[in-house]
Design goal:
Largest sheet: 8 strands, mixed
Number of strands: 10
Structural class: alpha+beta
Radius of gyration: 21 Å
Helix content: 25-40%
Distance between the termini: 36 Å
Shape: globular
Mean pLDDT: 88
Number of helices: 12
CATH topology of the largest domain: Nuclear Transport Factor 2, Chain: A
Low-confidence stretches: 13-47
CATH architecture of the largest domain: Roll
Oligomer: single chain
CATH class of the largest domain: Alpha Beta
Strand content: 15-25%
Bound molecules: heme C
């Protein structure tokens, strides 16, 4: 059966630079006649048909666009921080994201089956605060329906001019990946039965977009004058400054991570994906390891990891289980403080 594709577009009003003076006057007037309806939304392009999922998709998209608008100075760190902060607290987005959440580059233009793309598995909070925030969003959106799947198209611009510690890991270890971040024209978010299952950087690229070149020196982590890098992988970035569980979860991860290294876990669970997992599960960074905090306990206990038969030595295995449990609990507490729903399911 051919795919049934329908499009719904929303273009949020944008001002040309020459209109700024006029805009100032209009804004001043608007302060007097302010009505609490959605700001700047031009509803002149109306939906042909609608459904609860389409309405939800629009709401999610508008929230994201409002939290992370395009700023002219791509190096604006304050805008990056503010976007990350807002995304982590967006109510509709939070309630709609599925755990786990999948993220990667679209394998082929028009292919909306996320399983056909190489993805990484995420805790929803980690993805929106750390990854989604690296993008800025144009005031436009398009909703596409393909059978029961709703695809949200968000035209984007990637923040590509920061120091290297501002990215979740050196994406430029693969030039293909780094180019996809820098030149993809859209993020595609996939919504099905009320849940956002994952997101992809579109295979459609704009080769005119200016690229920043970085050479990878072979290091996934490093330390500079400001401390451990990439700083965005640390819990001080992931959680609010007021979160009282940060020191505890960090200490728990560090103790656990030392053992993960000894048991070869990070050989496979690192960004270079030596064992070709799909989805890839990353344990080598504090933020990413949060996604697997419960599943690691189970995998070690049931002697499934590392393959083929787990940790042989009972005492060593028991020690790892305890470290994993302490980390899982501390992770739960830190996430709960941020308002996240905690499940001990797949993550
Ligand atoms: C030789 C590579 C390799 C090593 C070493 C390894 N893993 Fe894995 N791991 C995999 C692969 C491949 C998968 C996904 C496929 C699967 O489930 O078998 C996986 C899956 C997992 C999962 C998710 C399972 C699920 O079903 O969701 C967890 C958690 C995990 N590993 C933890 C660990 C831990 C902890 C260690 C170290 C004690 C470890 N792994 C060592 C390759 C590895």
């Amino acid at each position: 059966m051919p795919n049934l594709r329908k499009f719904y577009s929303r273009y949020l009003r944008r001002a040309a630079p020459t209109h700024f003076v006029l805009l100032g006057i209009v804004l001043a007037l608007a302060l007097f006649i302010y009505t609490p309806q959605a700001p700047n939304v031009d509803n002149s392009v109306s939906a042909v048909e609608t459904s609860p999922d389409i309405e939800l998709a629009k709401k999610v998209a508008k929230e994201i666009i409002a939290a992370c608008p395009i700023v002219t100075d791509v190096k604006n760190l304050a805008a990056y921080d503010s976007c990350a902060q807002k995304l982590s607290q967006l109510k509709t987005l939070r309630d709609t994201m599925n755990a786990p959440f999948f993220w990667g580059a679209q394998s082929k233009v028009g292919n909306y089956n996320i399983k056909d793309s190489q993805t990484t598995e995420f805790d929803p909070f980690v993805w929106r605060r750390i990854y989604l925030a690296t993008f800025m969003f144009k005031a436009e959106l398009q909703i596409e329906q393909v059978n029961n799947l709703i695809v949200i198209h968000l035209p984007t611009q990637f923040r590509n001019q920061f120091d290297i510690g501002a990215y979740p890991y050196p994406f430029w270890h693969s030039s293909k990946k780094w180019n996809s971040y820098q030149q993809s024209t859209e993020l595609l978010l996939f919504l099905e039965q009320g849940k956002l299952k994952g997101a992809l950087r579109s295979a459609v690229v704009d080769p005119q977009r200016p690229k920043v070149n970085h050479a990878w020196d072979g290091k996934w982590v490093w330390t500079d004058a400001h401390g451990k890098q990439p700083y965005v992988t640390l819990y001080t970035r992931l959680f609010s400054p007021s979160n009282p569980h940060v020191a505890k979860v960090d200490a728990a991860y560090r103790a656990f991570e030392a053992k993960l290294r000894q048991n070869a876990c990070v050989v496979c669970h690192s960004p270079d994906n030596a064992s070709k997992q799909n989805p890839l599960l990353i344990l080598s960074y504090p933020n990413q390891a949060i996604s697997l905090r419960h599943e690691t306990v189970r995998q070690i206990k049931e002697k499934r990891m590392p393959p083929p038969a787990g940790i042989f030595d009972d005492q060593e295995r028991q020690q790892l289980i305890e470290l994993a449990q302490t980390f899982a609990q501390a992770g739960d507490q830190a996430l709960a403080y941020e308002g996240e729903k905690i499940t001990s399911g797949k993550n």
